[in-house]
What we know:
It comes from Panagrellus redivivus. This is GST_C domain-containing protein. Residues 115-191 form the Glutathione S-transferase C-terminal domain. By secondary structure, the protein is α+β, with helices and mostly antiparallel strands. It has 2 domains: 11-84, Glutaredoxin (3-Layer(aba) Sandwich); 91-192, Glutathione S-transferase Yfyf (Class Pi), Chain A, domain 2 (Up-down Bundle). 45% of the residues lie in helices and 9% in strands. The protein contains 7 helices and 4 strands. The protein has helices spanning 22-30, 73-84, 91-113, 117-136, 153-166, 178-181, 183-190; strands at residues 11-16, 37-41, 62-65, 68-71. A 4-stranded mixed β-sheet has the order 2-1-3-4, covered by helices on one side.
Amino acid sequence: MVQILSKAPTITLFQLEHSPTADLLRTLVSFADLPFTEVAISTTNPDSAHTGQANSPSVLPALRIDGTTVAELGPVCRRIAVFVGLHGASPHEDTYVDTLGGQILDLWEGINTASKESSRNRKVNDALRQLDELVAGNGKKDKVFLVGKTLSWADLVLVHFVNYIRNNDEFHHLFDDFDQVYPALNRFASHSRPQTNIFDLY
């Protein structure tokens, strides 16, 4: 259930500059259709004064709503999802959405933390294969949502992950025949979804 607010909350999103998941978190927060502040923390100088924020969280990314802070990528995604209505339509769907979203984030993190190029390429190929099988085994070919009949944060994580790989020059060679090698994943990630804020979900 979407939270009913008596007044607009104060929302602050803290994340590292140039984080691979930065666009994902901005998209999730923007579904609230409320103003929010984004604080970019420098990777070379985490205590830099340019953030302009007191009491910046020590663990990133982090989301602060009216003084209450949640940290780390998975919990932040889940907190935003509940806040803006991007979770499952039932407890069962909600659990499935969280499971799928968490698994995709784990694959993404595995790629980001791999130190060698050969290891990163192997992890990317493995991740894309697993996600293509996930989408292909998830029902009809024209299915546009991973779970249920409405957009969830798991859908957005999957689309942003594929776009991150596509837009990363390091992996550009993997996309010469992407639509043939990963047809289900390509179809899912390329599908146009008109929902851009909380009011489009209902």
